[in-house]
Amino acid sequence: MTKRLALDYLVSPMARANHENNEIYIHDLDAYYVGSHNCLSIPFDDLLANGFNTRQTDVRPAGSVNTAFQLVAVIFQLQSLQQFGGVSATHLDWTMVPYVRKSFWKHFKDGVKYCQNDKLMSLAGVYEPFEHIEEGIDARKEANTPIDDEWASNNKIAYEYAMDMTEKEIHQAVEGMYHNLNTLQSRSGNQLPFTSINYGTCTLPEGRMVTKALLEVSIEGLGKLHKTSIFPCGIFQCMKGVNREPGDPNYDLYQLALASTAKRLYPNYANVDWTGNAGYDRNDPKTYFSTMGCRTSNGADINAEPGTNTQTKDGRGNICPVTIILPTLAMEVKDSLDAAYPDVDNSETSRIEIFMDVLDKKIHEAKDMLIERFNWICSQNPESAKFMYENHTMLGYHPEEGIRSALKHGTLVIGQLGLAECLQILVGCDHTQPKGMELAKRIEQLFKDRCAEFKKAEHLNFGVYYTPAENLCYTALKKFRDKYGIIENVSDKDFFTNSMHVPVWRNMSPFDKIDIESQLTGYSNAGCITYVELDASVIHNTKALEQIVNYAMDKDIPYFAINVPSDTCLDCGFQGEINDECPMCHSKNIQQLRRVTGYLTGNYKTAFNLGKQDEVHHRVKHVGVRTK
Ligand SMILES: [Zn+2]
Questions:
Q1: pLDDT (average), residues 110-135
Q2: How far apart are the first and last CA of the chain?
Q3: Mean pLDDT to the nearest integer, 349-377
Q4: pLDDT given at position 528
Q5: CA of 592 to the centre of ligand 1 (A)
Q6: Which residues contact 440 (CB under 8 A, 6 or more apart)?
Q7: 623 CA to middle of ligand 1, Å?
Q8: Å from CA of 227 to ligand 1 middle
Q9: d(CA 210, CA 218)
């Protein structure tokens, strides 16, 4: 209903024609009319430190790590009601450091009282005067004193007690957050909020405890049957000198992450050293490369406020996307040439040149479509997203300047679908062949150049986006096939290939797949993902897994994920690769996890559309060693 309303009354005739002709797709049309934006990386550091307001009440700053984790779940929930897409935490381990300290000092006080009979040894080796003890501990708590404090550790019994209790509290707090994020409903009660958490780079003892707990809870799974949790999407941030190599301070946590991935598919891996995030500040984790689970990410902000690093991720998000359906454009060009010159075998060269012109025109139209929607979103009343503007979850809002002052820091992204099929139409092969790759690079360069030009000219953050397209891969294909019929390697399956991915049915090693896709990931600054399909053998071989993740990071892939079979029998709890029935109890009540866009889906046979189901059937495992 609201979709039709938007198409009939809100968008320009150009935008409507592009959408209806299957050329440029307008995402989330049902949210168009209400004027909400897409997604947001939430500035949790500020919200937890300062508290926030809701319709009902004001919420005080977090006083312990347990409260902090529960507030994260609450804020995720509240923010996702203000928008139509996902929410993320960009550096959750760092965010939690002050609250781990608060909890530690509380437990230390108890330790002194109950385990040391209210006696506390000073650094000088004498007992502190009784009246100094409480004061001294409270002062350290107030001062955000690190937990590796000499004064405290001098009191072995109380210190060990406090460390144990803090670790237990973090573990329970993380369990609570996982539980909440898998049960709280959002978006009018019909869907869980799409939540993602990035972590893994904090080398302080407090942050390391948080990362460890996040991974342990992920490995344990949820509930009686230890099911893999669908939310949050965990993203481990790989960083040279921090966690990549033996001897790095967080290398042990990287190993734990790999163990979790082998069993639970999460975490995925973000590459802090990615060259596309150049200019970030090594001393400010808010600027480290982080991403939404689906792949959407924030590139440099052309409107960054003075003194703010342009790569700051917090308080920013994607405002809206459109996606250019490349196979449609390629087919239109081919058809019109065939019709105009029916007797000649149209040369590939002219086909390519005409296609590049058409694509250029469509990229410009995509920009205009995004500006249309951006202006519409900017015209909304701040009351319509009260929680967001009142609490500055989207940063940069100056009431006297209107909500555009906040929205201008977000990204406007031009996505794409079906590069592989487009190349097939134009040159008879996809980019697994050198000829296809040559044209692929030319196409991506055009996207990149134009977005950079638009960014400068419009002073808005335009970016190249390798679209998730969970439903679009199917609906766009159906429309295409209705018009052009079945064409081999183009429309003979029930889906178009995601963005610039290698078609899922191509046999190759994981290393070869990374080699191909890594040649194109550098053109995108607003989100891309590369994933490989592995067989169940990696569950017992995390060294092999590590080799593959390292290879992807070294090839400058920004965001990398691994698919392994991870099915759970919902009657007896058996886990592994299950086809139709459980090998243990023969139940057919199976949770079959598959990755859609970057996120996992609980049971793909009911949750996926037909196109995505067909894509899952065509996915081949990437096995073997390098072939070149
Ligand atoms: Zn079973």
A1: 91
A2: 53
A3: 97
A4: 96
A5: 13
A6: 419, 423, 431, 500, 519, 520
A7: 28
A8: 13
A9: 12
**Could you tell me the distance, in angstroms and rounded to a whole number, from the CA of residue 577 to the centre of ligand 1?**
12
Distance, in Å, from the CA atom of 554 to the CA atom of 546, rounded to the nearest integer, reads 12
Neighbours of 535 (CB within 10 A): 12
- How far is the CA of 290 from the CAs of 238, 313, 623, in angstroms? 10, 7, 28
How far from 113 is each of 107, 108, 161, CA to CA, in Å? 10, 9, 11
- Reported as a pLDDT band with limits 50, 70 and 90, residue 627 is very low
pLDDT in tens, 152-166: 999 999 999 999 999
CATH topology for 1-34+318-505+517-528 is: Anaerobic Ribonucleotide-triphosphate Reductase Large Chain (3.20.70)
Task: Give the start-to-end residue ranges of the domains of the chain.
Answer: 1-34+318-505+517-528, 99-170
Residue 114 pLDDT greater than 50, yes or no: yes
Structure-block tokens of residue 458: 């419009």
Q: Please write the tens of the pLDDT for every residue from 192-212.
A: 889 999 999 999 999 999 999
**How far, in Å, from the CA of 568 to the mean position of ligand 1?**
8
Out of 30-34, 46-50, 298-302, least confident range: 30-34
pLDDT at residue number 163: 98
Q: Supply the mean pLDDT for the chain.
A: 93
205 vs 49: CA distance, rounded Å: 20
How many C-beta neighbours within 10 Å does residue 102 have? 21
Count of CB atoms situated within 10 Å of the CB of 340: 9
Listing DSSP states for 499-561 in one string gives TTPPPTT----HHHHHHHHTTTGGG-SSB--EEEE--GGGGG-HHHHHHHHHHHHHTT-SEEE
CA atoms within 13 A on the CB side of 331: 23
- How far does the centroid of ligand 1 lie from the alpha carbon of residue 157, in Å? 46
How many angstroms separate the alpha carbon of residue 571 from the centre of ligand 1?
A: 5
CA distances from 347 to 22, 344, 458 (A): 26, 8, 38
Task: Output the CA 589–ligand 1 centroid distance in Å.
Answer: 8
For residue 71, what pLDDT is reported? 97
CA of 583 from ligand 1 middle (Å) equals 7
Q: How far is Cα 316 from Cα 464, in angstroms, rounded to an integer? A: 17
Kindly give the distance from the C-alpha atom of residue 581 to the centroid of ligand 1, in angstroms, as a whole number.
8
pLDDT of residue 628: 42
Interatomic CA distance for residues 491 and 473, integer angstroms: 11
CA dihedral 555, 557, 558, 563 (to 10 degrees): -130
Q: Mean pLDDT lowest for which of 96-110, 241-255, 557-571, 592-606?
A: 592-606
* CA dihedral sign, ordered 322, 327, 332, 337: positive
Pairing state between β 268-271 and 318-325 = unpaired
Using the mean position of ligand 1's atoms as its centre, give its distance from the Cα of residue 606 in Å. 20
Q: Report whether pLDDT(173) > 70.
A: yes
Q: How far is the CA of 187 from the centre of ligand 1 (A)?
A: 33
Residue 186 confidence (pLDDT): 53
Query: How many whole angstroms from 255 Cα to the centroid of ligand 1?
Result: 30
Measured in angstroms, how far is the CA atom of residue 561 from the centroid of ligand 1?
A: 28
CA of 579 to the centre of ligand 1 (A): 12
pLDDT band at 84 (very low <50, low <70, confident <90, very high): very high
What integer pLDDT is reported at residue 539 of this predicted model?
A: 77
240-267 average pLDDT score: 97
Q: Calculate how far, in angstroms, residue 578's C-alpha sits from the geometric centre of ligand 1.
A: 10
